[in-house]
Amino acid sequence: MEAISRAIKVQLPNYLKSLPVPSTFGGFLKLTGKEWVRLAPLLVAESLLLYLVISWLLRLFSKPAAKKEAHPDWINKTVQKDKEKVADTIQIEDLAEKAAYHAFCRCWKSKKVL
Fold first, then answer.
1. Residue 86 contacts by C-beta under 8 Å, 6 or more apart in sequence?
2. Would you list the domain boundaries of the chain?
3. What are the residue ranges of helices labelled H in the chain?
4. Which of 44-72 are b and which e, b meaning 16 or more Cβ less than 10 Å from the residue's Cβ?
5. What is the pTM of this model?
6. Would you write out the chain's pLDDT as a tens digit for each of its 114 residues?
7. What region does 81 belong to: left with phi over 0, alpha with psi -120 to 50, or beta?
């Protein structure tokens, strides 16, 4: 813990004071390769922080999708899309009254679904 405190209170300010930060934009064009290498850790840290803040703000203010779009791999693309699970129950007595032959589609590609 002592080492972290020393790094924050002593080493970090000394590092920041020693950086070759120009006072004007044109001064950045005059920096040497060694000076850019010394600035690199600070630039990487600032870029990472900026990326994290922007991505957090985008997630915070993005609107959730109002309706789920049909995924290309989904089998059921049209039937009862407002329900999470499509399931129907049929009484056996009702089947006997309607017809002698019944077929139930489970591929979801039929246009007529009972």
1. 76, 79, 80
2. 2-61
3. 2-6, 12-18, 25-29, 33-61, 92-98
4. eeeeeeeeeeeeeeeeeeeeeeeeeeeee
5. 0.46
6. 788 888 888 888 888 888 888 889 899 899 999 999 999 999 999 999 999 999 999 988 886 655 556 667 777 777 777 877 777 777 777 766 666 666 666 676 666 655
7. alpha
